[in-house]
Structure formats: structure tokens, C-alpha cells
Amino acid sequence: MENLEKINELVEIFGHFDVEFAKNMEEKMDTQYLVLQNLKYSMDNDEMFIKLVILNSIVSYQLCTTGELWWGEFSEYWSKNEVNNDNLGEKYINFLKNSKGNRRLLNVKIKRIEKVIPFLETINLLDFKNYYVTMEELLEKLSKCLNSKKNAKTIVFALKMFGYSSRIVFNEFIPYPMEIEIPKDSRIEKYTLKFTDKDPIKFWNNISKITKIPPLHIDSIIWPVLGKKFDFESCNGKIGKKSKYLFKLLEF
């Protein structure tokens, strides 16, 4: 079943947005971007910063807390603890084992880290800069390492967070490719049901094509707004007049 009236209203709302608006949302309102920004400036190793972000992304599911608090814990820990290429896997696993916000399915998550570490050990900051231009290649590499589909939630989420960290490190904004799909987490799944009971990924791919906003940037607009602590008043001051349309996203 689809609610065509609601879908048309949604498309109309997104007609007021574009990639530049999503970029502003990410950089000014997404807690995950802001904590990464803080972490980057407290570390003196950009290569390790990006590698840690990728590792944290691929185990960011079945959390014991909100995504915002989990990434805050990650940022706080690594702002105080050094790491290098030789002990990256060991030290990250130790962090994960002792974390407060990510204690479920620990053995499964450790195995995921162990699968990705050999790949991360072979690449450097220049490689990351190249992957930032060709993000789909990194998506392919990570999906092979983890033996997962390229549209698996943690894989595409890792690409999103890689994009954030690369933007911060290289001080350059490169939009996400249209081909990389939205992460299908619980917030997105519940919200999609307001419009259709069909597959959320296919639904948002279609909205992406209509609005010409890449799915990962659509995610950046929706995901923070659906958070319990999203501050519309603050958003209005930081984003400007278009922020009024964000409130309409919650009216369905």
C-alpha cells in the first residue's frame, strides 16, 4: 500500500531542499558530524582518524544507546588515546569491549573489525583522498571485506561517515554519489511506513531521483530531524528560512 497524497506532499517539501541545504544540515545540525569535527582537531594523525571512523561505522548497530551518544563516546575516547597502524585493530577492539553504548553482539562485531583491519592496514591518507573522489570503489572494497551486499546498512553508513571524515580532513565538499543508497536503520524504516509498506531503500531511491538529491544526503536531512532532541529553534538560526520545511516532515 502507498499513500500517494502523502508521497506527493513529501516530494513537494523536498523540492525546497538541495545538496547545499543537506551539506549545511550535516555540518551545522548533525551531532555525528560535529563530534567527528571535534575529534579530528584533537588528533594529530588524519590517517588514523579516518580509519577509526570506518571501524566505528561498521559496528554502529544494535546499540545500547542513541547513535548520537555512541558517536560522542567514540569521539571522547579517541581524543584521549593514541593509536597507530600497528595496533589499530587491537586498540579499537579493546575500546569496543569496554564501551558503554555498544555492548550487544560483541563477538560478531569484533569479527567484523578483524575482517576490515587487513585492508585498512594497506592504505594511507593519499589512498583515502582518492577514495573520496571515487567513493563507490571504497564501498566495493568494504563490501568484499565483510562479505556483505553493497546496500547493507552498515556498509553505506560507513561510506556516509567516511564522507564526513574526508570532508573534514581534506577541507573539500564532494557530494555523495546518487548510486549509494540510504542506510535502512530503525528511524528510516519507521518513517517510511508513513508513506508506504514497500522497501525503504527503493522508496528513497525514487525520492532521490525525483528531487535530484543523493540518498545519503536525504538521510542527512531526515535522520537528525527524527531524533528526540532535535532543536528546531536552533536549526532555524543556523540553517535559515528553509528550516521551516523540516518541521513539515514531522507532520505526516
Automatic annotation (TrEMBL):
The positions annotated for binding 8-oxoguanine are 32, 60, 71, 157, 183, 219, 223
Which residues does the entry assign to the active site, renumbered to this chain? 153, 185
| Example GO BP | base-excision repair
Which Pfam families does this entry report, sorted A to Z? AGOG
Q: Does the keyword Hydrolase apply?
A: yes
Q: Which UniProt keywords apply?
A: DNA damage, DNA excision, DNA repair, Hydrolase, Lyase
What is recorded about the domains? Contains two alpha-helical subdomains, with the 8-oxoguanine binding site located in a cleft at their interface. Contains a helix-hairpin-helix (HhH) structural motif and a Gly/Pro-rich sequence followed by a conserved Asp (HhH-GPD motif).
Q: What is this protein called?
A: N-glycosylase/DNA lyase
